[in-house]
Specification:
The complex is a heterodimer.
Chain A: H1 10-22, H2 32-62, H3 73-82, E1 85-89, E2 92-94, E3 97-99, E4 104-112, E5 116-121, E6 129-131, H4 137-140, E7 148-151, E8 164-170, E9 175-178, E10 192-196, E11 202-206, H5 209-216, E12 229-233, E13 251-255, E14 265-271, E15 280-282, E16 290-292, H6 309-323, H7 327-344
Parallel strand pairs in A: 11-12
Antiparallel strand pairs in A: 1-14, 2-3, 3-13, 4-11, 4-14, 5-10, 6-9, 7-8, 7-10, 8-9, 12-13, 15-16
Chain B: H1 6-11, E1 27-29, H2 30-40, H3 53-70, E2 75-81, E3 87-89, E4 96-104, E5 107-110, E6 112-113, E7 167-170, E8 173-176, E9 196-200, E10 205-208, E11 216-222, E12 235-237, H4 241-254, H5 261-283, H6 287-294
Helix pairs in contact in B: 2-3, 3-4, 4-5
The chains are: A alpha+beta, B alpha+beta.
């Protein structure tokens, strides 16, 4: 569970193993649709378990029953969790009201970039570049390497909205080279962008709803641009977090209320793992057996590390055991997990 | 804060004001204190965890305020001229006064606080001494109390029975005979020819006696170091840096549920001893300073 190595096509290995365990005279056949459902549940189960494991091992560490080096379990857990870390600028809904991404599991940090250097609209898009034909990057001389570039187009109108990168170099009056492609690589135009200074960045601190009133009225600790704060709000019908799925996104309200620059608020969060999908081609007509095909557009492997494969198999076996009403399969899955937990304690 | 280059230090890197960074190396900023505390003293493996930054900020500011009140003695000075109202409005960051002086003919003359005369509230009364109320039933008050006026010492003001004593004027200076047996009751506390003052904390002013009218008054006072709410300007001398961390740590542990008493006590002792250390350091006693003072011991006093 703790060794962070990813293997390609892990999902096929998992499915083959589950089939091998469950299949008895073709009785335990699992359809791809069912397998994908169970795989998603199993992955989510193990993913959440990482956070509880992390907490448990921190407590052990503080009781001095944890080691260093290869015995540093906490480090391994952090590495897995960190592999789901995403940094994204938050879309502004209005004034000091910002939308959170729809795929976040845990908001780790929200940062504020106080100094805007430049902003405008892109004229073209290509890999790792920002092109603005109206800009004077060289003449103005204020844009420099290391500064933070944000695509501040709404994520409901552009799938790249909120994506950010850093300036690598100023190539010409109208073009910058970036560390990533926040405007896509196709020739799309009209994405609103802003460039922020990479100095003076401050963390916006999360404050509970029941404290924010007192905080705002406290002379010593009321939020300032040096010590800003935010409160988390629920999903509202006016905030669509994901334009594709239509999932509603949560929102944050940032204090002081003067923090109203679109693109200046960004979050570093842990996202949910993507739903695994075992894709296939049917061989021998519609009645033929499905053959694994990782070349399909919607193919998605497990995102958890290879060392989690036994755990995922055990979890799926539990679901499969219920499906085919086979108590042995269920018990096997359950027993595997219990033993695994005992080893880790 | 990152270290400054010499150009940044002396010339503010070409910016204004040029003297912005002069002497800045003595101080550590509030931002650095909060940042360092969150980084070094708060975390999963530390005594303090699950603490919000605003709590650290609050205790850091409280610690700096406490230092300003009694340990650091960062004296601020304000000079204003008095008009006929004889009122000196306290500065916006005033917490307590250290000395009030009158600047006259190039000399700073320390003034005496008049503790005998206080200001007083009064109510408006009619001819029959009945108190007058407004339509809401609240008592009416005059703008100024008559007791604010002529609050000089009873011995040296014009109404005193000792005023007008005979004397000799020699080279422009007046000399008087000792009034033997007549001034045994002199209150030396207020026996000063300069104007006296009393501080009306509620009203936020210093009241002066009438002879202070038109004079230049210098107020030396202590503030709380909060720099009028500008967090970026708040700083503390580096000699107190460790104390501030200890103060924050103690304040948080002291108010946290379930912390063992011996841990709280350890933090309290830590804080107290660091404050003592810092005070000794800041007093800056060294032989070079003592030398000049000790030379006075050989002086003949007639």
């Amino acid at each position: 569970m703790f060794i962070f190595v990813k293997r390609t096509l892990m999902i096929n290995s998992v499915r083959n193993t589950v089939q091998a365990i469950a299949n008895k005279n073709n009785y335990g056949y699992i359809s791809p649709q069912d397998f994908n459902l169970y795989a998603q549940q199993a992955q989510m189960d193990l993913f959440e378990d990482y956070f509880y494991q992390y907490n448990s091992w921190i407590n052990k560490q503080n009781q001095r029953v944890s080691g260093t080096g290869y015995a540093d379990i906490v480090k391994s857990l952090i590495e897995v969790i960190d592999s789901f870390s995403v940094t994204q600028s938050l879309n502004q809904q209005g004034n000091n009201f910002y939308n959170l991404p729809s795929d976040y599991y845990y908001i780790n940090k929200v940062n504020y970039y106080p100094t805007k250097i430049a902003s405008n609209v892109t004229s073209a898009a290509a890999s790792n570049t920002l092109t603005d034909n109206a800009a004077k990057f060289v003449t103005n001389g204020v844009v420099k390497a290391g500064q933070y570039v944000v695509n501040r187009t709404s994520s409901s109108t552009s799938s790249y909205g909120g994506v950010s990168a850093y300036v690598v170099s100023v190539d010409s009056e109208t073009q910058l080279t970036l560390t990533a492609s926040p405007f896509g690589v196709a020739a799309t135009v009209g994405n609103s962008y802003a460039i922020f200074s990479n100095t003076g960045i401050v963390e916006i601190e999360r404050v509970n709803q029941n404290k924010i009133f007192y905080l705002n009225n406290s002379p010593l600790t009321s939020p300032t641009t040096a010590y800003p704060a935010y409160v988390l709000g629920g999903a509202t019908s006016s905030v669509v977090g994901d334009s594709v799925t239509g999932i509603l996104g949560n929102t944050i309200t940032v204090y002081p209320t003067t923090i109203i620059e679109n693109g200046s608020v960004s979050s570093e969060y842990i996202r949910y793992p993507l739903a695994p999908k075992w894709t296939y081609q049917t061989v021998g007509g519609t009645s033929g057996s499905p053959e694994f095909d990782s070349g399909q557009a919607d193919y998605q492997d497990f995102e958890l590390p290879l060392s989690d494969e036994p755990g995922i198999i055990a979890k799926i076996c539990q679901y499969v055991g219920i499906e085919i009403r086979e108590a042995d399969v269920y018990r096997f899955g359950k027993q595997e997990i219990v033993e695994d937990n005992q080893i880790q304690v | 804060m990152a270290y400054l280059t010499d150009y940044q230090y002396y010339q503010n890197a070409g910016g204004t004001p040029k003297d912005k960074n002069w002497g800045s190396y003595q101080f550590v900023s509030l931002d650095d204190i909060v940042n360092n505390f969150m980084l070094m003293y708060q975390g999963n493996n530390e005594l303090i965890n699950n603490i919000t930054r605003y709590k650290v900020l609050f205790h850091a500011k409280r610690g700096i305020q406490e230092l300003n009140y009694d340990a650091m003695k960062e004296i601020k000075i304000l000079q204003l001229s008095l008009d006929d109202s004889l009122l000196f409005v306290l500065p916006s960051d005033y917490v307590n006064w250290v000395r009030v002086s009158m600047f006259q003919q190039g000399v700073l003359m320390p003034l005496t606080e008049n503790i005998q005369t206080q200001w007083a509230d009064t109510y408006l009364q009619d001819n029959d001494n009945n108190i007058i109320f407004d339509q809401n039933g609240n008592v009416l008050k005059p703008q100024d109390s008559p007791l604010d006026m002529s609050n000089r010492t009873i011995y040296l003001n014009s109404n005193s029975p000792y005023d007008g004593s005979e004397g000799c004027c020699v080279d422009g200076n007046w000399y008087f005979d000792f009034a033997i047996g007549a001034r045994f009751g002199l209150n030396t506390e207020t026996a000063n020819n300069n104007p006296t003052f009393s501080i009306d904390k509620q009203r936020g002013v210093i009241n002066f006696s009438s002879i202070a009218s038109g004079q230049s008054i210098v107020l030396e006072y202590v503030s709380d170091g909060m720099e009028k709410g500008t967090d970026g300007d708040i700083s503390v001398n580096k000699l107190f840096e460790e104390f501030i961390y200890a103060y924050i740590k103690y304040s948080i542990l002291n108010g946290k549920l379930g912390v063992q008493e011996y841990i709280v006590n350890r933090a309290r002792k830590d804080k107290s001893s660091l404050l003592r250390n810092a005070k000794i350091r800041l007093s800056n006693i060294h032989p070079g300073r003592l030398l000049m003072n000790l030379r006075g011991q050989a002086k003949w006093i007639k």
